[in-house]
Design goal:
This protein is of the alpha/beta class and about 240 residues long. The protein is built from nine helices and eight strands. The chain is globular, with a radius of gyration of 21 Å.
Length: about 240
């Protein structure tokens, strides 16, 4: 993923799994979302507060059109995944993550690891959003204090903004192949995925250990130990 980003020259980067299909008009929707702002529903001194969207992903869907008899429970998987991504701002890679190239480079790209890199990447984006939001709140508070002291009635510009965030795009989902659920069954896939995510989140297993547990074989040897960003940084420093 990082090598692909290093070769790209666009202002927006979109990452998609090989077995995922995007809906019609996906590119226009991403561009519009990442170049506009969205109202977070809060109102501050009669002014709508805006957030800058610094990442977006599609709703999750499973493409059952390739099988005559989809396994039972598919609809529940879709609903659960979409509930998680909407309320916790935690989409996974099969929902096709899109970010401005500037934000991607700011957070350092995807962590250089063999599994769960999308999980970590979203965590980096959420951490950045939280920090930016706190900074803007601090600046807005200072501006409001100065406005009160100077008996100003106009709302300070800084307080009109509520930072940035990750948006789940409305409309049609990104569709992921149903083949894994068909081959293993919905219950087994759910148990595998949940156990691996919980193991990783607990910090008791490395990405390499998780890879071996998931695929049943050791993680492949790396051609080089440095990530693209480490190589680029070394060139700048030298």
């Amino acid at each position: 993923l990082n090598y692909g980003a290093a070769a790209a020259n666009g202002r927006i980067l979109t990452f998609i799994h090989a077995d995922t299909t995007l809906p019609t008009g996906w590119d226009r929707k991403i561009i519009q979302t990442l170049t506009d702002d969205w109202d977070d529903g809060r109102d501050d001194l009669q002014l709508h507060c805006k957030k800058r969207v610094t990442a977006c992903a599609f709703p999750f869907g499973i493409d059952s059109s390739t099988t005559i008899s989809p396994p039972p429970g598919i609809l529940a998987i879709e609903r659960t995944a979409n509930w998680r991504s909407k309320w916790f701002s935690l989409p996974y890679g099969d929902q096709s993550l899109s970010v401005p190239a500037s934000v991607f480079h700011f957070v350092g790209g995807f962590p250089d690891q063999c599994l769960m890199e999308d999980y970590e990447f979203v965590g980096l984006l959420r951490a950045r959003s939280l920090r930016v939001g706190r900074l803007l709140e601090m600046f807005a508070s200072n501006d409001r204090s100065r406005a009160v002291q100077n008996d100003l009635h106009e709302q300070p510009t800084a307080s009109r903004w509520r930072g940035e965030g990750l948006m789940i795009l409305p409309g049609q989902p990104a569709l992921t192949s149903v083949r894994r659920w068909t081959r293993l069954g919905v219950l087994q896939v759910t148990l595998i995925n949940s156990s691996l995510v919980n193991l990783y989140a607990s910090g008791t297993i490395t990405p390499e250990g998780l890879y071996a547990k998931y695929y049943g074989r050791p993680c492949p040897e790396r051609a080089m130990s440095e990530s693209p960003w480490e190589v680029k940084l070394a060139q700048i420093v030298d």
